[in-house]
């Protein structure tokens, strides 16, 4: 960070706040593991666009939190990340039609919805 000519700090290059989800205890521990491992395994750094939503009746409203949205800019990369997560984690082994990662949305709304369930297990 540089100082402007008037002596004030210049924050113009700081446009995203990073958080370490591994430290956030309100997030389900398996969900935290999926998010941190997927960053390490893919080399990607994700931007979270949604965590807890007030009055959400689904996983985004559960505590511990079981839903997180990751911004995606590229459909092909999104499909690979989605397949990667689903190859490593089973959302609920008794209901294999449900997945931990779902790529959806169009254009600037493209994102991977990552979710866990109390029965979620590593494959
Ligand atoms: Zn979501």
Please give a structural write-up.
- The protein has one domain.
- The chain contains two helices and six strands, in the order αββαββββ.
- The protein has helices at 29-42, 75-88, and strands spanning 48-50, 67-71, 89-90, 101-104, 111-115, 121-122.
- The chain is globular, with a radius of gyration of 17 Å.
- The model has no long low-confidence stretch (mean pLDDT 92).
- The site of zinc ion has 5 residues, from strand 2.
Protein topology:
Blueprint: H1 29-42, E1 48-50, E2 67-71, H2 75-88, E3 89-90, E4 101-104, E5 111-115, E6 121-122
Antiparallel strand pairs: 1-2, 2-5, 3-6, 4-5
This protein binds zinc ion (ZN).
Search tags:
about 120 residues, alpha+beta, four-stranded antiparallel beta sheet, 2 helices, about 15% strand, binds zinc ion
The bound ligands are: zinc ion
Helix content: 10-25%
Radius of gyration: 17 Å
Provide the domain count.
1
Shape annotation: globular
Q: What multimeric state do the chains show?
A: single chain
> Which secondary-structure class do the elements indicate?
alpha+beta
Strand order of the largest sheet: 1-2-5-4
Number of helices: 2
Low-confidence stretches: none
**Residue fraction in strands:** 15-25%
What is the total tally of β strands? Answer: 6
Distance from N terminus to C terminus (CA atoms, Å) equals 44 Å
Give the integer mean of the pLDDT values: 92
Give a quick account of the main beta sheet: strands, pairing sense, barrel closure: 4 strands, antiparallel
Write down the secondary-structure element order.
HEEHEEEE
């Amino acid at each position: 960070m540089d100082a402007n000519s008037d002596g004030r700090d210049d924050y113009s290059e700081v446009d995203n706040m990073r958080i370490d989800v591994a430290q956030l205890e309100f997030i389900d521990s398996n969900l935290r593991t999926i998010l941190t491992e997927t960053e390490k395994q893919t080399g990607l750094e994700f931007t979270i666009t949604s965590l807890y939503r007030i009055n959400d009746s689904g996983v985004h409203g559960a505590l511990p939190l079981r839903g997180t949205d990751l911004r995606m800019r590229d459909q092909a990369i999104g499909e690979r990340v989605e397949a990667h997560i689903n190859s490593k984690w089973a959302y609920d082994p008794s209901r294999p039609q449900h997945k931990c990662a779902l790529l959806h949305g169009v254009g600037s709304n493209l994102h991977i919805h990552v979710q866990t369930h109390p029965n979620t297990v590593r494959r």
